[in-house]
Automatic annotation (TrEMBL):
<keyword id="KW-0408">Iron</keyword>
<feature type="active site" description="Proton acceptor">
    <location>
        <position position="180"/>
    </location>
</feature>
<dbReference type="GO" id="GO:0047070">
    <property type="term" value="F:3-carboxyethylcatechol 2,3-dioxygenase activity"/>
</dbReference>
<keyword id="KW-0560">Oxidoreductase</keyword>
<comment type="similarity">
    <text>Belongs to the LigB/MhpB extradiol dioxygenase family.</text>
</comment>
<comment type="function">
    <text>Catalyzes the non-heme iron(II)-dependent oxidative cleavage of 2,3-dihydroxyphenylpropionic acid and 2,3-dihydroxicinnamic acid into 2-hydroxy-6-ketononadienedioate and 2-hydroxy-6-ketononatrienedioate, respectively.</text>
</comment>
<feature type="active site" description="Proton donor">
    <location>
        <position position="116"/>
    </location>
</feature>
<keyword id="KW-0223">Dioxygenase</keyword>
<protein>
    <recommendedName>
        <fullName>2,3-dihydroxyphenylpropionate/2,3-dihydroxicinnamic acid 1,2-dioxygenase</fullName>
        <ecNumber>1.13.11.16</ecNumber>
    </recommendedName>
</protein>
<dbReference type="InterPro" id="IPR004183">
    <property type="entry name" value="Xdiol_dOase_suB"/>
</dbReference>
<dbReference type="InterPro" id="IPR023789">
    <property type="entry name" value="DHPP/DHXA_dioxygenase"/>
</dbReference>
<feature type="domain" description="Extradiol ring-cleavage dioxygenase class III enzyme subunit B">
    <location>
        <begin position="6"/>
        <end position="306"/>
    </location>
</feature>
<comment type="subunit">
    <text>Homotetramer.</text>
</comment>
<dbReference type="Pfam" id="PF02900">
    <property type="entry name" value="LigB"/>
</dbReference>
<comment type="pathway">
    <text>Aromatic compound metabolism; 3-phenylpropanoate degradation.</text>
</comment>
<keyword id="KW-0058">Aromatic hydrocarbons catabolism</keyword>
Amino acid sequence: MTVALVAMSHSPLLGAGSPLPADIDRELTETFDTARAFVREFDPTLVISFAPDHYNGFFHELMPPFCVGFAAESTGDYDSPTGPLDVPGDLAASLAQSVLDADVDVAISRRMIVDHGAVQPLEILFGGIDAIPVIPVFVNGLAQPFAPMRRVRRLGEAIGRFAAGLDERVLLIGSGGLSHDPPVPQWATATDVQRRLLLDGKNPTPQARAAREQRVKDAAAEFVVGHSTMRDLNPEWDNRFLDTCAAGDPQRFDDYHHAEMTAAAGSSAHEVRSWVAAFSALAASGDYQVSTRYYRPIRELIAGFGLLTAAPTPTGH
Ligand SMILES: O=C(O)/C=C/c1cccc(O)c1O
Ligand SMILES: [Fe+2]
């Protein structure tokens, strides 16, 4: 087995928001333990991480649909760890070249800033952000306009073919989703002040960052008690998406349309693009099987929270 996958929702409120009900807390701990055991058994030598950004590293000033990091640093939003990731730059450059050779356009960054979206799975699975070499792949999941899903699939397939040719055990991580609509400003409805941040909000003041984070924490608290105008989580949509991931036929992702996704599952449901890229990458190695499937709508986290692990089907099955 040279590739394996963990796809999971993330939430900056995990650990930074109000305490979770004990049963949910227990369930998540068990699920993360299971995922960690899966990763330990696979014993990866390299991670390819597909993740969105939440206007910490990528802004409307220049917003690519996809970007491969040749070097990356965590910004430390919501008290996540700061500092560099261990990115093998030459290998990341070869990956980017192979994607371009496959007719999929991808931006590159020699100074990528990543946030909780990329960092949280690394912390949960490896206990740190520099514990293992990681090639970070930014997949835009927040800023309209969005690439069609078939394009995300082709990105994933190209990267999957590259990964399958390496003499490495590659863990594919897809981070984000599922249904959720946290109060991250949208360009179309943003105020002038918000638009300035969306356009180029790098290096916010500590006060501006704290205000943004408090706004999201307050929104979660209102969501929990039912006093919220946020779009509700959509477990039915989420479970159908998990079924599609488990089906092993990435072309089925092509049926997801951006406007329908927003309407059914919220503005941030587009973060599932990271899952689509990761599963399409896995499928490039042939049939696969999902081994762990967890899902629960968790309002405290403003997230339809899911986690899947998957690996190629053993030959002979
Ligand atoms: O970036 C933010 O301020 C909030 C992000 C967020 C909130 C809830 C669930 C998520 O997946 C998020 O990324
Ligand atoms: Fe997110």
